[in-house]
From TrEMBL:
Name of protein: Bifunctional NAD(P)H-hydrate repair enzyme
The YjeF N-terminal domain, residue ranges: 16-216
Details of cofactor binding: Binds 1 potassium ion per subunit.
Domain of life of the organism encoding this protein: Bacteria
Gene: nnrD
Length: 525
């Protein structure tokens, strides 16, 4: 893994340990620890500098029995040389009361003029959490010194907030919340998902030379969506584009009971760059869609099946009425053009069956299901899969996606997308501004646009005699979620609070993505 990739790819804490093992056996342990401790001290100094002068402050560390504590002790020794009063607080003791901690680390700190104490001094401007790292197993009961920290203490976690499972982000007992985490070797999945994400604060990966040893298989990595990845998944239209080469999105959404969903889904698709949107629905929703978007096509059944590049099905369908008929209509259309993609959202998540997913998989149709947490729980209950009830959110998604052959986009403040071969993406940019009715309808539409553009590009490549390769469904879904999250942030910045203006913000974000790509001289799709 390149240093650049270290910022964009996370692996399990246990994978980092496995990568360290051969280097430890080769005697590189002390050098790696020095690199880790140096980086930890640099980040600590940066945190102090943000608040005032570094020299003259007090920094304390809670120090555990293993190498995590060793990192913290060496970091204190480095800080001591910058004029910091460095205090080590051991949290484990032998029967005779002596601290159980990294002996060389303590020797280095003592030689640098640091001291030991039983509790974090009230004067500490910063507390380093060096209690437990990747060697943690089971559950943690916080030691008294950690429990006694003032609520407003600034905490910098060494590698992992103690008590967090670095593989899964689970906290089984107690854990210490951090303001920031400096993590060594690679970003660790447990810092980005589950409770770990909420406890780690800002996460800073540090290269300690493990790159070539880290796993490369998609199922062992979690990739972070960023602008470059999103532009690669959803590039600007080619200069010779016309409306069909940009992708036609068919939208089976909305009902007389929930007409707004049709409008919002169509808006989402149009503002994320669809060449054409065709709304399939009853008169009541068709009229509303046309009133908002005169450029949309509307009909009862949707476009001719060979025309649609992606179907968006589910938002605002009325399960009391004709939702099932409309859903089955979408599946029949897809059966006639299996290379078109399907977004199953909202009501479609209640309707879809295991047999339908199997048929879609066998036909080669890219499928993205878009549950939020509640819908995800119901989906797993209704359509079980071995391993899909794991407490580890990523493992559960991977198990379900592999079993049912569909990509899942799990919505939340941190959205995860996982495809059947285990490739997984994280979109960490979402904020509370998107926790509102209707934002999911916009996302479903945007996802339709991103998938349709990809399907249209592939059709063009096939016509040109090229083999376009497998559909990177999880990356495409992450791209849509990223655009949507950025649109939410844009809304918040502009002081707008209703979902009605979200599609326009999405349009601005998409246009900016494409314009910046032009300026970078990147190729077009
Ligand atoms: N090796 C290197 O050169 C490098 C290592 N690096 C650093 O080392 C860290 C990993 O170090 P590590 O393997 O020593 O494990 P670590 O996280 O310190 O904890 C182990 C101790 O925890 C204890 N313990 C376990 N569970 C517990 C529980 N539930 N409740 C209470 N205690 C529990 C257990 O003690 P036991 O209970 O078994 O007596 C064991 O002794 C890694 O995160 C990174 O910071 C980097 O600097 C890169 C170079
Ligand atoms: K720690």
């Amino acid at each position: 893994m390149s240093v650049e990739e270290l910022r964009r790819v996370a692996v399990a804490g246990s994978a980092v340990r496995a990568a360290e093992a051969p280097l430890l056996a080769a005697g590189r342990g002390p050098a790696m620890m020095r690199d880790a401790a140096w980086a930890l001290a640099e980040h600590a100094a940066a945190l102090l500098r943000a608040r005032g002068p570094v020299a003259g402050t007090t920094v304390a560390a809670l120090v555990g029995p293993g190498n995590n504590g060793g990192d913290a002790l060496f970091a204190l020794a480095f800080l001591r040389r910058r004029g910091v009063a460095a205090v080590a607080v051991p949290v484990r003791h032998d029967d005779d009361g002596a601290p159980r901690w990294h002996a060389e680390g303590w020797a280095a700190l003592r030689a640098a003029g640091g001291r030991r104490a039983d509790a974090v001094p009230a004067a500490a401007a910063l507390v380093i959490d060096g209690m437990l790292g990747t060697g943690f197993a089971g559950e943690l009961t916080l030691p008294p010194a950690a429990r006694a920290l003032p609520r407003d203490a600034v905490v910098l976690a060494c590698d992992v907030p103690s008590g967090v499972d670095a593989d899964t982000g689970e906290v089984r007992g107690e854990a210490l919340r951090a303001d920031a985490t400096v993590t060594f070797g690679a970003l660790k999945t447990g810092l980005l998902v589950g409770e770990g994400a909420a406890l780690a604060g800002e996460v800073h990966p540090v290269d300690i030379g493990l790159g070539p040893q880290l796993p490369t298989s998609p199922a062992a990595r979690l990739r972070l969506a960023d602008e470059a990845a999103v532009r690669a998944a959803h590039p600007a239209p080619a200069p010779d584009a016309h409306k069909y080469t940009r992708g036609l999105v068919a939208v089976a959404a909305g009902s007389p009971r929930y007409p707004g969903a049709a409008v919002l889904s169509c808006s989402g698709a149009l503002h994320a760059g669809a060449g054409m949107v065709h709304h399939a629905g009853p008169e009541a929703t068709r009229d509303r869609v046309l009133a908002e978007h005169p450029e949309a096509l509307v009909s009862t059944e949707g476009p001719a099946p060979d025309r649609a590049d992606a179907w968006v099905a589910g938002p605002g369908l009325d399960t009391q009425d004709d939702a099932r008929r409309r859903w089955e209509g979408v599946l029949s259309a897809l059966a006639e053009r299996p290379e078109a993609a399907l977004v199953a959202d909202a009501s479609a998540l209640e309707l879809v069956t295991a047999a339908q997913l199997r048929a879609l998989r066998e036909a080669g149709t890219p499928v993205v299901l878009t549950p939020h947490a509640g819908e995800w729980a119901r989906l797993r209950e209704r359509l079980p899969a071995d391993g899909a009830d794991a407490a580890d959110p990523l493992a559960a998604l991977r198990a379900w996606s592999a079993a049912h052959g569909a990509t899942v986009l799990l919505k939340g403040p941190r959205t995860l997308t996982v495809q059947p071969d285990g490739e997984a993406w994280l979109v960490a940019d979402g904020g509370p501004e998107l926790a509102m009715g209707g934002t999911g309808d916009v996302l479903a539409g945007a996802l339709g646009a991103v998938l349709a553009a990809d399907v249209a590009r592939r059709s063009r490549a096939r016509r040109a005699g090229q083999a376009p390769g497998p559909v990177p469904t999880a990356a495409l879904a992450a791209a849509a979620a990223w655009l949507h999250a950025r649109a939410g942030a844009e809304q918040a910045r502009a002081g707008r609070l209703t979902t009605r203006t979200l599609p326009a913000a999405l349009g601005a974000v998409t246009a900016r993505l494409w314009r910046a790509g032009d300026e970078d001289g990147r190729t077009r799709g």
